[in-house]
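REQUEST FORM: STRUCTURE PREDICTION
Request ID: SP-0412
Submitted by: Lab K.M.
Chain count: 1
Length (residues): 446
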Amino acid sequence: MKCFSRYLPYLFRPHGALRSASCHAEADIISTVEFNHTGELLATGDKGGRVVIFQREQESKNQPHRRGEYNVYSTFQSHEPEFDYLKSLEIEEKINKIRWLPQQNAAYFLLSTNDKTVKLWKVSERDKRPEGYNLKDEDGRLRDPSMITVLRVPVLRPMDLMVEATPRRVFANAHTYHINSISVNSDYETYMSADDLRINLWNFEITNQSFNIVDIKPANMEELTEVITAAEFHPHHCNTFVYSSSKGTIRLCDMRTAALCDRHAKFFEEPEDPSNRSFFSEIISSISDVKFSHSGRYIMTRDYLTVKVWDLNMENRPIETYQVHDYLRSKLCSLYENDCIFDKFECVWNGSDSVIMTGSYNNFFRMFDRNTKRDVTLEASRENSKPRAILKPRKVCVGGKRRKDEISVDSLDFSKKILHTAWHPSENIIAVAATNNLYIFQDKVN
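STATUS: Completed
RESULT:
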């Protein structure tokens, strides 16, 4: 992988928006983005309950530069809108999270979840069809057994490639509150799903039973002071997981100590600076995403204004803190009034854990090189993202004189936000979801 700092000013090239920007239909807004373990496939989920899978183009001798481009591989409806009649509650079809399972055979498997139900999908290819049934005719209608005079041996005939998505498991009725996270365990036999107050452990083979491993619901709901915001398994140790809270804390739990992990093994929290205390302190300290590094040594968390990197061996403060958009501190009041202060930004590591990426407003996304401490702001938009064009770094100006290439903090568009991003597991290829557009950028190729 090429050095990040060398390519910092012109790191990624767009391959264009993969979805139409002509209409901002609510159902088309992308709500999650996830590469599979090889990076050959990229899945997106949207508010309409659909999953769209993109497949990477194979390199050809005629067009070697096309390597890295992704085209639509499969589209299917994962979740439908439902209604809970007992609670008079509408359950949205919006896909909250997608997680891939490692590929074991020719088929692909992924988990997708809305607020209440997790589904395991199998995505497989079919390029042959059976012909010569004895009890059915070629249209599939049953034949009269008395008319069958000869026994035929069915044969497989070639057909156009067809990609089929079939639901193999449906894990339902285990969450009272909205599911915000799913995470596949490193044993690949279990996974967990987390909602605001509870975390459940599932076996992939058992759909009607799950084990509650965390429950922070107080006996009296009026005493509720925090909720679970995100959870993830350790990438290598199947007994360890972390979950973050709306109070800005992270708890590391070990399932070997007790069946119910209400008592954490480690507790990560940064003491608040009294000089920065304000009405918005509690809201902006809420953690919206937590991710283990690929090595398993570090945890990355994203709150409203910063990304923090924590060492598993140091609980009292993060080892690195990166300001994502500190220029918004003066605008917290208006961001509170338009509800933007409650936006849940995600964060991702690159394949070697040396660079981290997260989103911001105005379709900006930020990258931080942990080694050189350099950072860059890039923009995902159709105007400056012609195919093969090089992205130019963007700068935000706070008061004073504005340079020609800068944008004023007062003219930022808060309706355009990058909440969901994904990084290829081994290469400098990133996917950025900007409302109902998916942009894929790759490292500059000489």
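NOTES: The first helix runs from residue 281 to 285.
Reviewed by: T.R.
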